[in-house]
Amino acid sequence: MLAKVEVAFKELLACLQTAKMYGIVHPMFQKSLEKVYVVFEDALNDRQEIVIGIVGDELACEKEIFFDLGKLLRPAILYLKERNIERLAFYRGLSKEELGKFVGIISGPKEDFKTNPQQLLIFAGIENISIGKLKVSSRQDTGTLEFNQLNLYDFSMHKVAQVISSVLNLEKIDPRMLKLSLNNIIDSLSMQRQELLKLATVKRYDVEVYVHMLNVAIFSMYFSSRLEFEKNDVLDIGVAALFHDIGKLYISRKTLHKPDQLSEQEFNRIKSHTVLGGEFMFKYVDSLGILPVVVSFEHHLKYDMSGYPRMPLLRKQHIASSIVAICDVYDALSQRRGYKQDYSPDVVYSIMNKDRGRSFDPELLDKFFQFMGLWPIGSVVALNDGSIALVRQESERDIRRPKIEIVSPEDKKRLVDLTQDSSLCIERYLNPWKEGKEFLRLD
Ligand SMILES: [Fe+2]
Ligand SMILES: [Fe+2]
Asked: Which of 330, 418, 421 is nearest to 376 (CA)?
């Protein structure tokens, strides 16, 4: 039976080699992952877990030492030891995605593993693998660090904030960690869609560029994943969206937040954030790729080729820029909701729709609202019969008629699918800080 474990481990190391040579997005890696997953699955059919330890310079499994394998794979053993990994355990239930993420993580630089390598796995949401020093004997010992599912989201947000400030200080960043964080954020959002509302409305008094960049990243990832982009592309678009306004952080706050009319010079200064941002992200081409440069540069170009920066040779916006442009305007307009009664979601919708075909790709804009719904989930709305409801789920068939939960009056409390009940309709949006406040529950 141990022969299967031996094969599994050999394949795992081959897969690690492929990841280091080609990166984890390359088809070669996917092929190799496919192979290693099949053998792991097979080996885990016979047992609950596979535990492999490094004893001295040899590999051991279930008290048996694979001397031959040890000799053959000495560089690999050294590689793992350098990463503080002396023990690897794989549990039944292991998914291919987890295995892929795991190989991605251990293919990273050894500096990442300085503290507790298990943290990296927990951070990546890998539940069925544990790694660490030999003395660690049970899964519980390693699996319940301070990172539980609940604060994974906050932790990821914190990581993203750290990367943004590193970029501003021109410090080295870890693109893998950034993508993992964005991945965790989008995963938590799909598990708990109300988070979108929290982000999109509750913190609206804070109109910092930073909050805006994060919001645009989240909207862009949500939008592109609904457009069925591949996961890696979704993350790349998220990264590009995250930095789209980075150039603005170099423009004085005084100019950015000036309440009255801007002079031509000041306006030109603000417009320059696109070129500034593009130049800035160019310094990170090696780690983040070209997309952040393209999106920083292009996100104010419009669908009809107007907008800025003006270019001598006109060419169509990159699809990632078109996605970010929609999310950018949506967030900027929605932010005003906090203090301006007139920017309710339906107003945002009609303002953006006026620009359909001019600023925005019409098909893409329709899709955006189809996925987002007209009323964000969690919105407090007044119905035509005077009752108050919370929006629970958007309806792709008719964006004006989502599924709602009537919360007041007491005797009318119930769930209603507005596409099924033509007697009811949404009449008005209630500002969540004012008249809507008492009905708002963030559960
Ligand atoms: Fe911008
Ligand atoms: Fe923006």
From this structure: 330
> Which whole-number Å values give the CA distances from 105 to 11, 109, 261, in the listed order?
16, 9, 50
Q: How far apart are CA 107 and CA 103, in angstroms?
A: 6
Ligand nearest to the CA of 273: 1
Confidence at residue 196, expressed as pLDDT on a 0 to 100 scale: 42
Q: Is the pTM of this model over 0.90?
A: no
Euclidean distance between CA atoms 226 and 443, whole angstroms:
24
For ligand 1, the distance from its centroid to the CA atom of residue 38, given in whole angstroms, is: 46
3-class DSSP state of 346: helix
Which ligand is the nearest neighbour of the Cα of 299? 1
Given this model, what pLDDT does residue 200 score? 43
Q: What is the pLDDT of residues 383-397, one digit of tens each?
A: 999 999 998 888 888
- Residues with Cβ–ion distance below 5 A, ligand 2: 245, 328
301 CA distance to ligand 2 centroid (A)? 12
The kind and range of the H/E element at 19 are helix 2-22
Dihedral class, residue 373 (left if φ above 0, else alpha if ψ from -120 to 50, else beta): left
175 Cα–ligand 2 center, Å: 22
Residue 152's closest CA among 109, 173, 182?
182
- The architecture in CATH of the region 151-372 reads Orthogonal Bundle (1.10)
Residues sharing a CB contact under 8 Å with residue 248, sequence separation 6 or more, in sequence order: 209, 256, 270, 273, 277
- Give me 411's structure tokens: 């005797």
Q: Where are the domains of the chain?
A: 2-146, 151-372, 380-439
